[in-house]
Amino acid sequence: MSLVYRIGFTLESLFDYVRSNKEWTWGGAAGAVIEGGLNGAVQKWVPKWAQPLVGGGIHVLGSWAQHAIDGEPYSFKDAFTDFSSYVVNENSLVKKVKSIDKTIDKVCSLLEKYIDFIQKTCDVKRQLDREVRKIADGVTQWVRSMDPNDISGPTGYGRARFIQKDHRMEYKIRFENNENATAPAQRVYIEHKYSEHLDARTFIMGDFGFGNFTKEFPPKSKLFQGTIDMTAELGIVIRVFAGLDLEKNMVIWEFQSLDPKTGDAPTDPSIGFLPPNNGTSGQGYVTFSMKPNKDVAHLSTVHANASIYFDQNEPIDTPNIFNTVNTYIFCFSNPL
């Protein structure tokens, strides 16, 4: 009976992976089989309090197998992030919140067919989603604190990170000048190649900031070009450019320090707008949002990552994140 149970658990994991990933790979299938098989073998013998930790280790092993078979790199940092995220998601409090959320989803989907005032109920749920996302953002901040050069987006539902096709996908890219750097960064250039499943016409810039400075773009902005006068604080002016490059399917940002007397980059390498990080002044971020194409196919995968350039150095590539588009119409059209 124990063997039958383990086989069933393994097949269930494989089926869930193939069903939720339209562009599945052999490595992903192998990782699902390993994860499902090991979980089925050990979960009955592991104390309840230790199951998230053991499950996290098994999840990392499955992810490592997936990347190894697919010929993709998998670093210690990736393993740490996968393990931490798994443990957080398997936390009993988080599970209870998700269980309540799923129950509300089911109730909403049933009531939509028969009750005209369902929208009010769903609005309450969406407010709950926004509050839970604030908690999730705090967890993400803690989990990824080892590498602030990253990108974050919609959490979605489940391991496939499902979102509804009409959901506005909000992204945040963070960057940091390394604390061991010998000089401040004079120029930071960020590029994000957006997914072919996203509609460029829905692109909207959010806000940006560095150190103690923040600025919101005008509502529904798609392009920005201007300067920030920081002569009193840093003795420089910062030229900012942000917008879409439709030919390359990219969103780009550029922050360039300028000598206010010459209009050129400072000749003194000790002058720049982003000093080595001391916990506050050496960090920055940019935000934007887009929506999926109206004709996006069911179960399409939307990937997102970014490349960050500091002065003339090689780019720092953020980890890749993804969401899976669900084209069915349910109440949970505004996931986390």
What is this structure, in a nutshell?
The protein has two domains: 2-90, no CATH class; 149-326, Immunoglobulin-like.
User: What would you report as the Rg, rounded to the nearest angstrom?
Assistant: 23 Å
Overall 3D shape: globular
Category from helices, strands and their pairing:
alpha+beta
Q: Which fold name corresponds to the CATH topology of the largest domain?
A: Immunoglobulin-like
Number of helices: 6
Average of the residue pLDDT scores = 78
Work out the number of β strands. 14
**CATH architectural group of the largest domain:** Sandwich
CATH class descriptor of the largest domain: Mainly Beta
How do the strands of the widest beta sheet line up side by side? 7-8-9-4-12-13
Q: What is the oligomer described by this structure?
A: single chain
Number of domains as seen in the coordinates: 2
Secondary-structure element order, N to C: HHHHHHEEEEEEEEEEEEEE
Helix content: 25-40%
Give the termini distance in whole angstroms: 39 Å
Strand content: 25-35%
Q: Summarize the biggest pleated sheet.
A: 6 strands, antiparallel
- Which parts are unreliable, with pLDDT below 50 for 5 consecutive residues or more? 136-147, 331-336
